[in-house]
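DM from R.C. (forwarded with permission)

"hey, sorry to bug you on a friday — could you get me a structure for this? deadline for the figure draft is monday and I only need the backbone to look sensible"
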Amino acid sequence: MNRVILTKDQIYILSAVFGFLVGVLTFSFYAPNYFPDSQSKRFKVEQGERFKSVAERLEESEIIPNAFTFKLIGFITGSDSKIKAGEYIFKNGMTYFEILDKLKRGGNGEQKLVTIQEGIWQHKLAKLLSEQLDLDEKKIMELSVDKNFLSDLGINAKTLEGYLLPETYYFHIGSNEEDVLIKLHYEMEKLFDDKALKQMEVLGMSKHEILTMASIIDGESNHVDEFKRISGVYYNRLKKGMPLQADPTVQYLIRERKRNNRVLYKDLEINSPYNTYKYTGLPPGPINNPGKSAVEAALYPEEHDYYFFVASGRGDHVFAKTNREHSLNVSKYRRWRESQK
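My reply, with the result:
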């Protein structure tokens, strides 16, 4: 039997090739995987689902770039039989090993029902989530203005406020602050489907502007059936270059006060771009987290000739087309309010 004897040069070449392949594999295993749209993604592993199927669906969802590499890591580490069923949230930039480790630790199990009020301010949302899900209130507020976290979610704004959808949710016990905020943002994103995006083009509004408008609408009324009419008033005023004169934007400025949020005349003089009595146009960003109905109202305002509205004393509002009509309605409301003292 003839033996193959390698020269030193051949050994060096083979060693270099082997080292190169090991290096490439190591780099591939530990390199971050970035999603094309930059947002975190939700993923569910079904009970009894095979590792091969999970790897292929991860590639289809663009969570990983290559299912073969993921399957290879699973085989080498013996993890291909250890993944657990459940729901997962994968952040942008996770490595193959980080994704695999999360799948081995398992998705979330027991759930808790939590109702989040529409139009809720961010600091109150943080407190609610802290009380209901045993989360860190301070960390939620820190994440709300964290540039990297906002960037990972694809949000080009200074804060998360306005980008989280209030609803009644089942949250998994053990979810961390990031998981919960990602879920709330994911549900808000679902409202902006192709139909909504086309309507935004018709209105000439960005998503940020729609959410800002929606937050003002949600702050104005508890009657969902008048949301679209209120929206129409604000769009009419914007077109005319009139200040919105929306009390909720001033309430946003005084929200830290311990007294109630009743707006006083002196509050209307606060020098802030959020004060829609002093500045025309929309404020810089959302003033709360608007609900689905308010977002829909911002997207589809009622067409009418109203430019004013005031509380009726019955919980809803009275609308007017002229300043004279509005003044009469305001006088009626003030007389009603005096009669209640």
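R.C.: lifesaver. The two ends are 111 Å apart (CA to CA).
me: no worries. The chain has 14 helices and six strands.
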